[in-house]
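Q: We require from you a single protein entry containing the residue sequence and its fold in token form, and nothing else.
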Amino acid sequence: MDSKIRLGILGGGGDSLIGILHRIASSMYDQYQIVGGVFNPVWEENIGFAKQIGIPTNRIYLDFDKMIEEELKLPLSERMQVVSVLTPNFLHFPMAKKLLESGFNVICEKPMTTSYEEALVLNDTLKNVNTVFAVTYTYTGYPMIRQMRQMVADGVIGKVQKIDAQYYQGWINPIIHDKDLRANTWRLNPEKGGISCCIGDIGTHAFDMLEYVSQLKIKSVLADLNYVYDDNKMDVDGTVLLRCENGVKGVICTSQIASGEENNFIVKVYGEKAGLKWEQENPNYLYLMQDGEPLKVLKPGHSYNSSISLDGTKLPPGHPEGIFDSMANIYKGVARAVNGEKYDEGEFPTMIDGVRGMSFIEKAVESHINGNIWTDI
């Protein structure tokens, strides 16, 4: 354990998908050891969950402030080195800010904050401390997404002409059509979720992903959002047109009311010579499309892939990898940064990704409210 990074976790208790995802991902490369945290604001559930998953209870704290207070009393050799923030959106900013100010490295769920203003404050805070900050845009950890990014950078598809992302889910259907449920769900409460539900939750994934694989900056957006009901204050569906640097245009289509859809995230980049397409529900396949040529399918683990793709591949070709592996690759990159090792800038999303994500969310909502007009990021 002495050689492992000491990890604390905030939130993610009970049957939380995010909690399971982070805990398993952190263990995959044998570089982290969970030493404590606050899994739930209710003490009985907090301590009970720690016992359930086998975490020693001496560093399970009553609340976040108590955790900071007690951890800072410990010598550096015993103190938590990294803290993962897996709480509802409205807690991301105050927790991350205090963690940074107290000298902890931070892994934060997205959206990073509930406002662009908070994101800027957090960015300024990071500039004044010597710590690592990562935002878990999880899908950037997939080996074939990293291969896609490298192929675009290497000019395999030629000059980028169009970028396109679709992210469709249907999970909010049972909630949005029930007046009581939609009024009592935190994701549809602006005080807890921020100004956007769909764009803030999954649209920001699409935005970050398109900038990640194309390595272009999106400069302005035109959004048309759907709230379904007049008493619902947060979008659950939306389409956003994009204008990028170098004249490249694109589109993001997102929905949480796409009936029957599970987690249908598709990313496409089209160049003057070829196109690349990746589908999250079939993440081991990267499609290379060329006019007049047969469709080519690239798969992880083969020597024809880039070094960053192969570094994120744990198994031989033909053995499927998935969302846990993708998140684990982000944790792996953070571990390298925390340990002072050399790492590729594409190994984990940083504070800047989080800041740009918050700007995208606010500008998309602003564009819609102002009559679907072009709005600069």
